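Structure ticket #2291
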Amino acid sequence: MFMEHATSQITDEHIWLSVLFRPVKSNFTRVQRVGCCITLLFLCMISNAMFFETGDNKDRQRASSIELGPIKFNPSQVYISLVCSVLTAIPVYVIMMLFRKSKQKPWERKKKKIPHWLPNFMREKLEFSQKLEDILVISDNIAIKDAILPTWCVYIGWFLVFVASFLACFFIILYSMEWGKDLSEEWLTTFFLSFIESLMFVDPFKVLFLAVIAGILLKTLKINRPTKYDLKEITDMTTKHGKIKIERRQTSSYQPTQDQDFKHIKAQKLRDNQMKNVIKELILNILFLFLLSCILYSNRDTQSYNLHTYIQDNFLDPPKPYRMYDKVIQSSHYFEWMNKTALPALFPETDYRGIRMTATQRRFSYNSANLKVGPPRLRQVRARIGNCSYPYIGHTTCIPAYEVMGEDTGNYCPTWKPQPCSDAEESTLTIDAWKFTSATSIWGAPIAGLLTLYGGGGYIANLDVNKIVSTESLNEIFKNRWIDRQTRAVFFEFTLYNIDINMFVYVSILTEFPETGGVVTYENIFPFRPSQHEGTLGKFILVCEIVTMVYIAVSVILMGIRFAKQKWLFFSKFWNIVEFIMVGVSLVAMVFYILRIQYTSQALAAFEENDREFVNFYHVVIWDYAFVYVLGVLVTIATLRLLKAMAYTDITFKVFSVLGQTIKVFPGFATFIGINLLSFSSAGYFLFGRTGDPYKSVITCMETMFVGLMGDPTFKTTGAEVAMSHMETIYFSLFVIGVTILLTNLFLAILMDVMNRSIEDPPSKQEVDMNVFSYMWQSMTRVITGKQPDYTYRYKEENDVTREDDQQMTYVTEYKDPSKLSMSLLNIKQFETKRPFDQKMSIYEKLSSLNGTIE
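Resolution: structure written out below.
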């Protein structure tokens, strides 16, 4: 009942859809519905305007605004638009009831007079047209029981439409005189949001609510009675105005269709429907994949590589005489690299001609192409001092490995002295570099290095937008030994923005100081483009994003309907599971997209507020890369769904059936592979873990063994001594024999066994019906050449043979002459080669019974 009520009311109660799909039997005319729509728009305008004050008194928070191309809005505007949509729906619903419940006037058709000055041939045409209209146009006086209001209530409804629209326009003009450009744009955006919410949420919710109430309270549907025509009146008008002595066209008679033809027509119709469904699904999948690819490639393009290369060449691998970053092996080298390589590349003072740059030019990095988004900073994470107890040594002070939960969080004075600090120390330039800052206060997040995972907080040495101040700060922390034994990692962080390609790059150059001593260098360079909607291509990407969101919303609704019908049997099919995963990943991508926009707006607002302070873009990078990775997974799933259409061929159906049967034995085979890799990984760790980087841990060993199984030769790099060369030979020989050869042949043996069993199994009816692509090709051939294709199934031969059997048995039963009977038996034997064994047996049984009867 609920679905029936919802279907019947969606075209009557939804104010916007009902304009196009109005029910035929309704007092509520299309013109009246348009009037209600106009009233709703004007009321939304004035109600939104009442929420906005003048531009001088209103303090608007632009930090949390969301930008979608030219459209910019914030959560406050969404709330205002939703409230206005709900409030304005009430008076509009009252006007709708006035139109809907009012009785109609009796309809009378007025006959038009034909001007006498027209030529005769035009007068004849008009007279014939009026006669034809008298015959065909019949008054349909709609008698609806719900029309309880008098006829003049329609005029009250039109009066309310006029008054509401006029007053709304009048007060909007008054409000707009006090607004400026920014406030007017916000009001206009809020009005459009109200319209969209009314179209997509408020009216559909009203339809669902009324359908639920009607389904609970009403047990019957509202049925519109058909129009009653006066056949006598129609006959009289036809006799009066129609032509006489018209010869009727003789209809040709057709013979009844045979049963075999019915089967053929039914099979052809089933294939037609299947072909339409496959083509529709294939087109939708290709369209969805195209939209996802456009969105994905707009986030990552070749310019990302060029920007990454620029950072690599100028900061990490500069030409001589600058120090290269990978040559840093101790803390003094690190400060030398900072002073002689990093700061000169980040703070250029002269151009390539040797002329000193202006203040505006110095805001850019080297080559004046990338703008510095705030100053850079140094961030240090430290390990706590602990007490250790060792045999033969006893208790001693030690500094263990770094842990996020066990990092040092104390506040110190310069040279890491405990507080309180003297006045001279408090007045130093880098006093904040000795105090711990939590990750939440600087939008920090954990970041992984080569050795371990580091926290998002730490001890921060803020540099300046000026090179002189930055150099002074760097020299000050160097003299006070800011890097000591407790230091486990130092991050050099900065953000650049390339105006020419509209792309940011967040750089985090990580220098790790392990507890064993030495330096491990690692860099994180993250090019990203948070604003995708600039220019013509940006507008196209915006359209793609909107269409993709609509596609996902429709997919969620359709999948929910199918799940409601099938319950848990929905997950019994593989492609339903793929679709469920795709919808889930799509919703996750939408959440990541919204979070990226929100955090980007906050970061840019912080930079706009104070461009002399460091702004952390790492959390923006996290959500940007998470969104791109999820999009990559979504593109993979969308590409996989294209195989669903390919499954409608015989070959791919056999491949999928073989793979489906292989899954039953795959868990045991995967366990066998895992045990082998784990055993060889453990042996490799114990043998070569001291010398080989690919074998430094058990997890790394498993990764190395897996890529070696895939054919990568780099797994042979062990760095072992010459004395261990014989162990290398034995180890890799056993690995090649025991893993590569044995497991590969075992997998092929399992696959061949499954293929043999699938060939022995008789083909199912589903396999017989898998010729849709062949049918599509034949249909295209028919359109191009005009030749009727041969729509033949595999079981058509069996049907033909069965028809021949019936004919031969008919001959046998009719023939009384033994000579003719023998000829019929001979004809049957000639067709025995076409029949399966079970059909032969049935024929022999019939012949045996017939022979006994004739004898």
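Closing remark: The longest strand covers residues 487-498.
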